[in-house]
Specification:
This protein is mainly β. It has strands at about 1-5, 10, 20-25, 30-40, 50-55, 60-65, 75-80, 85-90, 95-110, 110-120, 120-125. Strand 5 (about 50-55) and strand 6 form a beta hairpin. It is elongated and about 50 Å long.
């Protein structure tokens, strides 16, 4: 009844910027709580790693960044639009990866169910 839709991937020059977005598309029901939401990435031949996460998104909203992106990437969200963003500034070739949006949330109509969702993946390529 709900899935994540990502947009904003593409090719960018080193030092450039890119903005990713991820929206929860709801067929029926509603979101009652979000326990964690944010972004992972996976480079070729590498393990999937967390990039930026928002914990307890509808309450305190603590943010956790990977050391490799601190000071360059910014995660934000629009709760009313059920959307999370990743602003990528001063990108580097090593940022090249497939980026996945994720959300752990409580969702439903009369019955609330905790769900772990993943987006389809966005290719981000940083190259001169």
């Amino acid at each position: 009844q709900v899935h994540l839709v990502e947009s904003g991937g593409g090719v960018v020059q080193p030092g450039g910027s890119l903005r990713l977005s991820c929206a929860a598309s709801i067929v029926s029901g509603e979101i009652f709580d979000i326990y964690v939401m944010g972004w992972y990435r996976q480079a070729p031949g590498k393990q999937r790693e967390s990039v930026a996460l928002i914990l307890n998104g509808l309450t305190d909203g603590r943010v956790v960044y990977a050391d490799s992106v601190k000071g360059r990437f910014t995660i934000s969200r629009d709760n009313a639009a059920n959307t999370v963003f990743l602003q990528m500034d001063n990108v580097r070739p090593e940022d090249t990866a497939v980026y996945y949006c994720t959300a752990d949330l409580a969702f439903g109509d009369q019955t609330q169910t905790r769900r772990e969702l993943w987006g389809q993946g966005l290719q981000v390529t940083v190259s001169s």
